[in-house]
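Schema walkthrough. Field components (list of strings):
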Amino acid sequence: MPAPYALTDDSVVVIIGSGAGGGTLANELAQKGVDVVVLEAGPRIEYEDFINDEWDSFGQLAWLDNRTTSGDWRVSKDFPNLPAWIVKAVGGTTTHWAGASLRFQEHEFKTLTNYGPVEGANLLDWPITLADLEPYYAKAEDKMGVTRTNGIEGLPGNNNFKILKAGADKLGYKDCHTGNMAINSDFRDDRMGCQQTGFCFQGCKWGAKWSTLYTEIPKGEATGKLEVRPDSHVIKIEHDDTGKVTGVVYADKDGNLQQQKARIVAVAGNSIESPRLLLNSASSKYPDGLANSSGQVGKNYMRHTTGSVYAVFEQPVHFYRGTTMAGIVRDEARHDPSRGFVGGYELETLALGLPFMAAFLNPGGWGRSFTSALDKYDHMAGMWIVGEDMPQEKNRITLHAELKDKYGMPIPDVAFTDHPNDTAMRNHAYSQGMALYDAVGATRTFPTPPYPSTHNLGTNRMSESPEDGVVNQWGQTHDIANLFVSDGSQFTTGAAENPTLTIVALAIRQAEHIANEMSSGTI
Amino acid sequence: MVTVYQREPGRGPGLSRRALLKGSGAALVLVVTGSAVISPQQAWGVEPAALNPETMATLIQMARDVYPHDHVADRFYAIAMKDHDTKAGSEAAHKALIEAGIADLDQRAGEGGYRGVGWEEDRVKLLQDIEATPFFQAVRGGMVVGLYNQKDLWPLFGYEGESFSQGGYLTRGFDDIEWL
Ligand SMILES: Cc1cc2nc3c(=O)[nH]c(=O)nc-3n(C[C@H](O)[C@H](O)[C@H](O)COP(=O)(O)OP(=O)(O)OC[C@H]3O[C@@H](n4cnc5c(N)ncnc54)[C@H](O)[C@@H]3O)c2cc1C
Ligand code: SF4
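Field assembly_structure (string):
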């Protein structure tokens, strides 16, 4: 039964955001008997109400509050007010996500050590190692029901995967399979197996794909220790004279401002809103924003080096049928500077419906070159590139100088420019992807530019030393002991892998730390 | 309000056989008659409320030239262009943008106007010259959703749309590829 807590109750942990980080932390704490209030800006939409339609679903779930963009990235030109494709709803972006759940590689926790300094990049080693995170990866995989872990079978391969696999074999790639997916291949955890409907990005109407919306959150609520308040948009975190945070101010569903007291505040609004909130909470004591003595809040924004390769074949493929991310090639994920860049990348199948294909294949493109590609829509296969991008200080979230949201708070600007290493990696991936499809007889291939960011990382990064980053190895801010960051903005570097498994593992680990500190009375 | 309607063959609103004959030039597919743009061959018509019907007819041709799909009938392009008529009805500035944009295009095309230019290639050259204008971008940008999000159009591209109600593709061909 959900527990309603009073606004004046200053014994609760307030978590801002209910996605991968926030939703997991909430359940983990509730299971340990900690009282939790989750404030979520978006509405609560249960999975039965998801829509098998790309634009309608986007309208139902996506974060559409105004944002601006700057920097050289093409998204800024094609989608100037949509830097990221993320969700505003209970469950956060785990409603839209595809489910690919990969552990980081050992060397990726120590990029400065392993890659050496890279000019223009703000590389730093994580304050934790793979060994530190392994037990939590194991818990996360079990919790999320990741295929090919815990004895869970892999998903069957759809047509898009079969083409990927055939091409991978021809190219001599060895590590190609249907992925480690947080999608049930069979009934598990009271949720059914995947029905191959092909609308993973629109929210899984079967509940086969893990989302905090229908796993962590109801489980937490069942303890009687968790209250989730939807339509509650936090605009400011407050603190007392000693500098400790004391609660938050949020706009409720009617737009009225409310103040919720807290013993601890954990920020998990994803990597654009989390730093924005810290910056918007500036005060006379913290004129540069909360937890920003390092000046790193909002900086080192990473979005993975991405891009897609689509290909047309003589015969039909129907790649939109079945899981959206149906398979992976991992051979290029290694660090091998002989390829002309540091770090590595994964190739993962991807399919879009016709409406999104029209919007994203070549934004702004027109004429026969464009339309003849779409004419072969049902003959297409597709893959997505996801690789490690370089943290750079100039890639950052800042508060807009003039534009404000409906609560009068400055909106975020998202600045991004590729590092030369990012560009070199993307070009390498494009040519490998095109070669893979050529090897199975593609008649035409398309190196497709990155979409608005689905992976948003790094803007409150974790560091050993308080001068280099915003949070310590527990996601606790260096500056304020009872203020935590619990989402992907903690990432010191991005690694080649999709981020969510790591976000969840960090949240489980953080919950243990918070519960321990609370019972020992240190916070 | 603009309507796109299916005509009963030979008996569409505002269209006599004489008007049809009079309107049908050699290369002409769309016919402007009175307040409507009609497609005699395909039995539909569009009656713009705010825009000049001649403008609408040219707009539909332009829409096809921007996103040409030879297996897609004019009707789909007309539906996509309807939005501009609706918007022109409530926003004078949008009406001016479209009317002036089409007038400019006709002017550039010379005698016979844009629709009088016989080859797509030549019309596309005219479009390339105005590619950066707000007018062109309004027409192109609007079509990304206005054209490709029409559910009736999806089957023409082999896209099957919603699949939950049919139980997904688990038993309906998610892995049916045979040619590999
Ligand atoms: C189409 C798509 C496919 C993806 N596929 C994969 C994949 O296969 N594998 C993978 O690892 N990752 C994938 N991702 C990325 C993954 O979804 C994110 O990495 C993950 O959800 C991020 O977790 P988070 O907790 O940081 O933020 P989110 O899950 O985005 O949650 C943040 C929540 O905070 C709320 N919020 C924000 N600001 C406030 C505020 N001020 N007050 C109250 N609430 C607030 C938001 O509304 C949101 O609900 C995908 C993403 C997309 C869009
Ligand atoms: S393909 Fe599977 S995981 Fe994806 S939405 Fe359908 S049932 Fe859910």
